[in-house]
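Journal club prep — side note

Before the paper discussion, L.F. wants everyone to see what a predicted structure for a comparable chain looks like in token form. Sequence:
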Amino acid sequence: MNGFFRTYAKLLVLLLIMAACLLPSACSLLPEEEEELAPPLVQPATIAYKTEAVTRGTLISELKMGASFVPEIQESLSFQKQGGRLKKVYVKYGQDIKAGDLLAELDAESLLSAIRIQEINVEKSQLALSKLQTDGASSYDIKIARLNLKQQQYSLDDMNQQYAATQIFAPFDGEVVYATSASSGDYINAYQTVVKVANTTALLLVTTADDASDLPIGAMVSVEFQKQVLTGEVVANPTTLFNDPIESLRDAAIIRIQGDNPKEAEMGDSARIIYVIEKRENVLILKRSLINLMSGRRYVNVLEDGVRVEKDVEIGLQTDTEAEIVNGLEEGDLVIVN
């Protein structure tokens, strides 16, 4: 009996110990487990934006192109009625000439011989007519003699015209801007340019830039030449020169300087033409590189209270580098560059 109670008592004590371990305070009797540490909080990196402010100013859309001074009056000279063997070219490139100077001629010795013979024939016909008139010949004989003299004179005149066509004379005072490299004895075709002369005191500006056709006739342009700013007027463009006999001018625009040409200007000198297409003052201006275009939508990234915000914009006048902002931004708005 005593053994039973002792066994029962041991079981009771064991149950009490187990029940005590289930209580929170009792768990302190056991080894404490370490608490798990919370992961450290990662602070987001601060983004440093580079910005440019929207400003007001004057926006100018303009064309700029190079041009060269060329003679207003120039002429290509050739043997127009006939070709032949070249006798001599009497001038060279860059040489000053006077109106009436002999520039070049063909070999016409055989023609000169024929002219001298024909001059004799004319003189003989004149003598024959005079004798008939002195001798009181019939009106018929005198008329025949007169017709013979006229025929001989016509032949002489024709020969002289042929001889004149073998020579080239300067049509005006100026300068030789081209002379053929052909040598004496070389064959020269009719209408082949032998000499080109120009009046270098009267110069025009010619530009063959791709956008020369955008210069309207009558438009006033600025001309920059050797630190001088001159005013010029467009007097011709490709719409009027498309059929010009000088092929190089068909795609060109021609500008005449207002007033006297600068004394320093010489044929071949370069200048710069500036034509203002449109000018707008006191408008919002932004670099075109900051304006994004996607599917027809134009927008910019603006910094507002440290946050990047997309804003749609409407643009107006544009230049190569800048654009007018019509809607979407205000003066002073900070547009993100990077």
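L.F.'s comment for the group: The chain has three domains: 51-60+280-336, 64-71+200-278, 75-188. Keep this in mind when we get to the figures.
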